[in-house]
Fold:
Amino acid sequence: MIIINKRNLFFLISVWLLSTLLSAQNVTISTPHTQLLLSVPNGGTPEQLYYGSRTSDADIRSICETARRRNAYPVYGMGYPCETALSVRHADGNLTLQMAVIGVKETRLTKENATLTVIELKDKVYPFFVNICYKAWQDADVIETWTEIRHEEKKPVQLQQFASAYLPVRRGNVWLSHLSGAWANEGQLCQEALQPGMKVIKNTDGVRNSQSAHAEVMFSLDGKPQENTGRVIGAALCYSGNYKLRIDTQEDDWHHFLAGINEENSWYNLKKEEVFRTPALALTYSDEGMSGCSRKFHQWARLHKLANGNTPRKILLNSWEGVYFDINEQGMDQMMGDIAAMGGELFVMDDGWFGDKYPRKNDSYALGDWTVDKTKLPGGLQSLLDNARKHGIRFGIWLEPEMANTKSELYEKHPEWIIKAPEREVVCARGGTQVVLDLSNPQVQDFIVQTVDELMNSYPDIDYIKWDANASIMNYGSYYLPKDRQSHLYIEYHKGLNNVLERIRTKYPHLLMQACASGGSRVNYGLLPYFGEFWTSDNTDAYQRIYMQWGVSNFYPAIAMASHVSADKNHQTGRRTPLKFRFDVAMSGRLGMEMQPKDMTDGDKEFAKRAIKAYKEIRPIVQHGDLYRLVSPYDKVGFASLMYATPEKDKAVFFAYRMEYLLNQVTPRVRMTGLDPDKQYKLIDMTPLKENKKNFLDGKVLSGKLLLEEGVEVPFSGEYSSVVMQLIEVK
Ligand code: GLA
Structure:
């Protein structure tokens, strides 16, 4: 019998009140200018009510009363006959899930300047748990969301679909922008109106994930995408391995967007109490068009996602297109001397420097044998480092640590370290002998960390590593993983890679590493926390780079986008373009050179020297400023244009490139963006062909209002002409 007295009546009322409050609980997740609103009733389904710009408390209340709700993380099997984020096979064979809210936790991550909101869910019958996590940055408009999945069932539960996140996008005239491409033509911007049906963007390479499609998208909510107007949601999956983005549009009012690891051939047997954490999906929102959305990604990347995102990047010369495998001490010294004389700050010795028993004379040998080829470099790395110091520049080196050649001492010693199914023959990639090491194996992870450790311990002056990865998983199977975990290989590979990179980054926090993978195959936010930049493409043709860099700039900041001036004629396309054009294109990213300086004329060297000096002046604006894309090369109006401005809007750099040259062609004026209408700006031609032959805009002082509203006539002159103008506020 329960006796009700005053004390326990008060207690009972409090419990009732609390549970009523909880059952109607709404959660608001905010960044400085964006907000995500969820309803999380205790014992009920978590639902999403709103994602957009930050609103007032009154508007939040109105949204709660009027918004249409969508399940925040739809699971398979009970009352949800659509594309789901999560589906499993329980230990007893049951294929259904029914998740209900059991708690909400909010934590302030003071050190990181973020808040973490965790919605805790439990299956109504099974001891199966999912946490939906939201990390909202307080100094960048990005919310990262992922899930943590675990269970207490007696035997493993098989995860069959395990998306990181689900986002409902209300139907209207919604357009999708995403990147596609191929080797040497990466980062092509594709835009389409979303139609009924299923759009899938995915990767199955196993090792690299952005040579063709990318794991980033934008949804333009107000019709055909515009650069500087309209509401846009951006999403980037922070993962380095196989991914799958699904946009399902069927009979209802929503585009159902799901993003996560590609589960194909990767079903995961989750042990009791093991936590499976999905990679984060980074979400952002802007009402300033696609460029606005890009600026949000860029700011977040520089502050939180890019290794040393606030350190200016050095201007470098990379040896690859200059000498390819023909490395020798004297040649390296000459290249270092030449780049130093032109004002460069770093020299990177690319492939071809290693191998003892199997010297790396071409791409068939020696991957895995990271010892100096003494025939090519009798003085070893020390002598190169000494020479770099003599020239007053820093030294960097190329490695491809995740790989081996079957013609290597490493493979002879450890044939079981490569990725291959035990009963199958070896399938080789590049050079007819390249194989991928099995990074699910902790011994292989240790070997890679040791390789970098030995290099850095012996030569602590090494300033930069170009980390390459030139093969896919062609031969599925692991000697290391047990039979019931073979299907984990794709996932374990990337866990292993992250582990290796985490150890290296912790030990060498200031070492700049470039993520290269046959060019731009590793442009993803899964790896960027360990790298300071990526190699945008093996194609260095300035003209084609305009398309690629434009595409990639949608999601990645200029500071991370390695962009090198290469030879005339270009080695990949055979195109001939003026040196100025090649510099002007490379200067809109992280400037470098990739050619043999000894083949340059004195005039070219003199121009390069001036261009490098100019880049040093605009480097802070390009590498740390705000990007405004103005005229898209994809719009085919004969030219392309973009600019960067400081947040204070006191300085900017304007770039324009002639994409098509026809006599008496009409070229519209370009209206700038990102300036202050009330300021006056002086225009300076940064890369004139001759020092005393500047274009007609040079020296003019124009108001921000005029530049924004009327724009400027671009001083083009002939085929492949280009312009780099700095704008400085005049007080
Ligand atoms: C890959 C890279 C190139 C170069 C070569 C060296 O293709 O993308 O930049 O480093 O390997 O073999």
Summary: The longest helix spans residues 602-624. The pocket of alpha-D-galactopyranose is lined by residues 320, 350-351, 363, 398, 468, 470, 516, 518-519, 535, 538 (CB under 6 Å). The two ends are 84 Å apart (CA to CA).
